[in-house]
């Protein structure tokens, strides 16, 4: 099947038209300022209709429209949200007490039955939300305002797991018989999602019945702007108040007072296909490992706004470097003899195609023949997961779900992991991850995590390149936008636009 090719100019014009439609002059009227609406430009459009069972859940949490039973603090500790407290009542059982007098946007009340319904739908979904990879979970009511959550195996991090936006609690009206989940008018956060215009925009309004402090902004106007140049222009021209993920190439063109670097638990990693193609050969994977010049990528592509990777887990987890041990007896690299590699990545993150160009040059210099494939993420994810590429460059959040990297490692590197692009299956890695997962939070768990990382790195199935910092744009009159390394919150009840006159 032939692919439709769109010129860079056409893409830029499309992005400009999108901005014109979503950030028009009417947004700058005095009335709009009085209304205190926030204009937000986001990187990726919804991929799954904004169902919380997918990665779209993180949009719902960044808009503060869908809430979870618990949230995580900066240290990754579980704190109350829709649940006020909890305790472990058995090896496999936890009891969560629910916050009273919480109303959903449709007017219904939070109760145990609602929570049981939401968690049961997530546990029985196909595919499951990533946070539930390898977890069998059931929930039952314990009176009106308490829930018992039981897991097939002991899960010492269950509260942290339930903080994942993919396990947000929506009202019963959100869940239909055909398995779809609609977050419109069904969340419980300070902002109510009232309108979604496909993959172009969304609109939220302040929810007057919120159980916590009222939102200072009257609403949020969201536009999905995949083009990085267009997002940078939105901040520069004042068309957007808050801009997500400004490309490093755009940062020097902007007022430096308006951009903020947030260290991310996000690693730019090269995944190599261990199941089919030339990368089945461990010695050729080692040759790829030795050919990569990480510093060149940090300096030239990321303009020094990133950190060279020493492992899968970066400086956002400061304990990782302290506990990391070098791989013992690394595989000796073979001498490439022109073997062809299909190197793929996606264009949604503006730096990745440029990373691919540099990697292709480095691998060609090492003796490989490299073919490149670049598409939008929505058009390439299924092929990557199916193992159709020899190598795939991915910008991957390493503690996105539970605040703990075990879930990410299981998803990406366990035999049954749902995001196993490397097609990796090693019993010793599965065993190490299972052991780490069984240990309560603390130093012993961290040490077990780093032993698992060491085993993964020894396969050269995933070659960490660099750790990213996200660049967030905020207009001069914006106050209290959230700079969250976990990318869970961006706008909350305190976020507001302050009158220039004030």
From TrEMBL:
<dbReference type="InterPro" id="IPR030678">
    <property type="entry name" value="Peptide/Ni-bd"/>
</dbReference>
<dbReference type="InterPro" id="IPR000914">
    <property type="entry name" value="SBP_5_dom"/>
</dbReference>
<dbReference type="InterPro" id="IPR039424">
    <property type="entry name" value="SBP_5"/>
</dbReference>
<feature type="signal peptide">
    <location>
        <begin position="1"/>
        <end position="25"/>
    </location>
</feature>
<dbReference type="Pfam" id="PF00496">
    <property type="entry name" value="SBP_bac_5"/>
</dbReference>
<keyword id="KW-0732">Signal</keyword>
<protein>
    <submittedName>
        <fullName>ABC transporter substrate-binding protein</fullName>
    </submittedName>
</protein>
<feature type="domain" description="Solute-binding protein family 5">
    <location>
        <begin position="78"/>
        <end position="418"/>
    </location>
</feature>
């Amino acid at each position: 099947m032939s692919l439709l090719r769109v010129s860079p100019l056409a893409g830029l014009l499309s992005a400009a038209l999108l901005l014109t439609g979503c950030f028009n002059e009417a947004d700058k009227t005095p009335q709009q300022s009085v209304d205190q609406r926030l204009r937000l430009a986001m990187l990726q459009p919804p991929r799954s209709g904004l169902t919380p069972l997918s990665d779209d859940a993180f949009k719902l949490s960044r808009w503060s429209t869908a809430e979870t039973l618990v949230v995580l603090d900066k240290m990754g500790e579980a704190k109350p949200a829709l649940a006020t407290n909890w305790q472990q009542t058995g090896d496999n059982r936890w009891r969560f007490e629910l916050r009273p007098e919480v109303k959903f946007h449709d007017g219904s009340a939070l109760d145990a039955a609602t929570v049981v319904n939401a968690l049961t739908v997530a546990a029985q979904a196909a595919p499951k939300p990533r946070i539930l990879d390898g977890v069998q979970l059931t929930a039952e009511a314990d009176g009106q305002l308490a829930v018992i959550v039981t897991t097939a195996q002991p899960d010492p991090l269950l509260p942290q797991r339930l903080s994942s936006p993919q396990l947000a609690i929506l009202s019963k009206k959100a869940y239909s018989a055909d398995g779809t989940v609609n977050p419109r008018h069904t969340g419980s956060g300070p902002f109510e999602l009232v309108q979604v215009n496909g993959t172009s925009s969304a609109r939220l309004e302040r929810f007057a019945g919120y159980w916590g402090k009222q939102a200072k902004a009257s609403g949020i106007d969201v536009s999905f702007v995949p083009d990085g140049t267009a997002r940078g222009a939105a901040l520069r021209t004042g068309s957007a108040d808050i801009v997500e993920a400004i490309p490093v190439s755009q940062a020097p063109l902007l007022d430096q007072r308006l951009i903020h670097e947030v260290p991310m638990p996000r690693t730019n990693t090269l995944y190599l296909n261990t199941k089919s193609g030339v990368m089945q050969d461990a010695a050729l994977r080692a040759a790829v490992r030795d050919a990569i010049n990480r510093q060149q990528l940090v300096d030239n592509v990321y303009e020094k706004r990133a950190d060279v990777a020493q492992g899968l887990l970066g400086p956002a987890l400061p304990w990782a470097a302290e506990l990391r041990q070098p791989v013992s007896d690394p595989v000796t690299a073979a001498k490439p003899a022109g073997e062809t590699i299909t190197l793929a990545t996606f264009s949604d993150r503006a730096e990745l195609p440029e990373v691919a160009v540099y990697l292709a040059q480095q691998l060609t210099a090492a003796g490989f023949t490299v073919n490149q494939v670049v598409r939008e993420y929505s058009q390439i994810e299924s092929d990557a997961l199916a193992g159709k590429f020899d190598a795939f460059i991915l910008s991957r959040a390493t503690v996105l779900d539970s605040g703990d990297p075990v879930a990410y490692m299981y998803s990406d590197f366990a035999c049954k992991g749902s995001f196993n692009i490397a097609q990796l299956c090693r019993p010793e890695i599965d065993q190490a991850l299972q052991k780490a997962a069984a240990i309560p939070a603390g130093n012993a768990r961290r040490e077990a995590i780093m032993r698992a990382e060491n085993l993964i790195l020894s396969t050269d199935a995933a070659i960490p390149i660099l750790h990213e910092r996200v660049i967030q744009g905020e207009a001069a009159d914006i106050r209290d936008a959230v700079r969250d390394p976990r990318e869970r919150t961006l706008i909350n009840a305190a976020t507001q636009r302050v009158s220039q006159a004030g």
